[in-house]
Amino acid sequence: MEYDIIVIGGGPAGLSAAVRAAWVAAPAATYRARVLVLDAGDAPGGLARWQPLVINTPGHVFTKRELKALVTACEAFGVGIRQERVLALRRIDGGFEATTEHGSYRALAAVIAAGCRLGHPGEHRLFHHNRVLWFHDTPRLDYLMQELDANSTIDTVCLCGAEDVAATQRHLDGPRRLALRTFAEPPYAGPPVPGVARGRLERLAANAAQSRLVLRFAGEDGVQEFETDVLIVDFNAYQKRAASLGFLEPAVRRLANGFVDPDRDMHCDVPGLFAAGDATGAPFGVVKAMSEGTLAGFAAYDYVCRARTGAAPNLFPFYPYEI
Ligand SMILES: Cc1cc2nc3c(=O)[nH]c(=O)nc-3n(C[C@H](O)[C@H](O)[C@H](O)COP(=O)(O)OP(=O)(O)OC[C@H]3O[C@@H](n4cnc5c(N)ncnc54)[C@H](O)[C@@H]3O)c2cc1C
């Protein structure tokens, strides 16, 4: 095994898990875990790159500074971070193998921290340029659609989400100037809904003139690329049905809506497999992501240390005095 722990997803949950697992033994040096983060974006951070996140109460924020501190800590403790999307995570003899488009990585343990939807390289920049928009409640969506409808430079809008995006689409039914195209990402629980294409958004980017978005969509009728002025991300739908876990091959216990259902130590019912953050379902927030990530990091380290040394580690959260 090249690694002890592979973390899938480099958002607040995955980075917290990685840094905790790599740091836990620093003072006592019982055993140093070799940790690798695999993340589908173009830099670590997940949804926390989109905008500063409010932690619990106004005034406590998770900004670029906090994100940088997590990434710096990962570097200080030798955590590898690779910007590669995991296509499959499978069990192998004595551990797990994660396959990306660039290769395969093996580890004793794995942490699922892939959030509630598959992130895409560069999407936070498109968000900052108002090409990617988001909403989490229907009054805000109504407002957004009115604004877009009144903007004569915008003709087409694409709406994406998990299966429950169909409910959003129905909510929007009615006369409007804009052409609206809707698609739903798996998993699917019910029959197809007319007007809602099924498949995966594989890529999103700005066109050469930077004036429109180009989407690559792998649908039931094959792969197609098309342009749209704006993409609206239906986080309401993604929070109701996990769309980021298609890579996960082991049959782990899940909630009814598809999110992973670990125990209180963030251990799934597959030995050596842990989960944290939005991937474990509601509530969806950075505090939960970091807390669960930290717990998963401890638990994954505990699992690995016992396997490697035969002894239980000291899990008191020492500050690493050596840095
Ligand atoms: C616009 C916006 C505003 C928000 N505001 C707040 C707020 O104010 N307060 C708050 O508490 N929360 C807020 N949230 C929610 C918060 O961002 C999330 O709860 C938090 O980021 C979850 O962290 P995570 O690490 O679990 O998942 P994510 O941040 O989603 O990170 C998951 C990472 O996994 C990667 N990934 C997915 N699939 C794969 C794969 N197959 N292989 C490799 N990598 C993969 C993704 O690319 C992503 O980088 C907001 C979210 C958004 C979008």
Gist of the model:
This protein has 323 residues and is an alpha/beta fold. The protein has seven helices and 16 strands. The protein has two domains: 3-116 and 244-309, FAD/NAD(P)-binding domain (3-Layer(bba) Sandwich); 123-240, 3-Layer(bba) Sandwich (FAD/NAD(P)-binding domain).
Q: Your description of this structure?
A:
- This protein has 323 residues and is α/β, with parallel strands linked by helices.
- 25% of the residues lie in helices and 28% in strands.
- The chain folds into two domains: 3-116 and 244-309, 3-Layer(bba) Sandwich (FAD/NAD(P)-binding domain), CATH 3.50.50.60; 123-240, FAD/NAD(P)-binding domain, CATH 3.50.50.
- The protein has helices spanning 12-23, 64-76, 123-128, 138-149, 165-172, 235-240, 286-309; strands at 3-8, 35-38, 53-54, 61-62, 80-82, 86-92, 95-100, 104-112, 132-135, 156-162, 179-185, 196-206, 213-219, 222-228, 230-234, 273-275.
- Strands 1, 2, 5, 6, 7, 8 and 16 form a seven-stranded mixed beta sheet that branches. A seven-stranded mixed beta sheet has the order 9-15-10-11-12-13-14. A two-stranded antiparallel ribbon has the order 3-4.
- Helix 1 (12-23) runs parallel beside helix 7.
- It is elongated.
- The protein binds flavin-adenine dinucleotide (FAD).
- Flavin-adenine dinucleotide is lined by residues 8-14, 38-41, 46-48, 50-51, 53-55, 85-86, 113-115, 118-119, 134, 235, 244, 247, 277-279, 284-287, 289.
